[in-house]
Amino acid sequence: MPRTLVAGCALVAVLFALTRGADSKSAPFPDPVIDDQLAPVSASRSVVVAGGCFWGVQAVYQHVSGVVSATSGYSGGQIKNPSYEAVCTGRTGHAESVRVVFDPSKVSIGQILKVFFSVAHDPTEVNRQGPDTGMQYRSAIFYEGEDQLRITRAYIEQIDQAKIFRRPIATQVMPLDQFYQAEPYHQDYATKHPYEPYIAINDLPKVEALRKQLPALYHK
Questions:
Q1: Residues 145-159: what's their mean pLDDT?
Q2: Taking residues 59-64, what's their average pLDDT?
């Protein structure tokens, strides 16, 4: 989200919030039936996810227990070392993404995915998220390894079969080719600018949803 457009997009976001009915979840969001067991010792693993503007996705994962770090960046495109301005054109193929590094002895990949599908974004939207439109805002999981692929595919099938959402999951699932870290001013953006209208309307409610809906996974 270009900083010069934040005020205008805040107005769009207000109208969007007032007119859009959330894709309702009639029951508590399910745990994945297929998942890894917690590892016996501390380690470091990662997965890259995309779910709209990376400010909000990063903010959510920074409050997930067992997550070591969440970094905003770009994945899924053809351009090497893309700039934010280039990605915003929607012509690079890259999606605004977040690399989530987690400790598998404290949180499983399945629980990381549960956060992604339940509160971090709306996985049924295609090439948009909230007031932001374009393929750079698409829903995607860039998996690292066959185990992540197996668990991700099984969970998407589980959610679709349970009809958690009114529409089918639109999330792309593809192998991670490269993750390019975003510019420094994008890192921790929601934490540093909590009173910006765009953040207050679109992103902080996601963190609050994590706290309320998934309290066992939330930390301050």
A1: 98
A2: 98
Per the domain annotation, does 12 fall within a domain?
Answer: no
Computed over every residue of the chain, the mean pLDDT equals: 90
Identify the domain containing residue 146 by its residue range: 44-214
How does DSSP assign the chain, residue by residue? --GGGHHHHHHHHHHHHHHPPP---SSPPPPPSS-PPPPSS---EEEEEEESSHHHHHHHHTTBTTEEEEEEEEESSSSSS--HHHHHTT-S--EEEEEEEE-TTTS-HHHHHHHIIIII--TT-SSEETTEESGGG-EEEEE-SHHHHHHHHHHHHHHHHHT-SSS----EEEE---EEEPPGGGTTHHHH-TTSHHIIIIIHHHHHHHHHH-GGGB--
Confidence of residue 28 (pLDDT cuts 50, 70, 90): confident
In a domain, 162, yes or no: yes
Catalytic choice (53, 70, 107, 151): 53
What's the CATH code of the domain at 191?
A: 3.30.1060.10
Instruction: Flag whether 35 is in a domain.
Output: no
Q: Is 88 a catalytic residue?
A: no
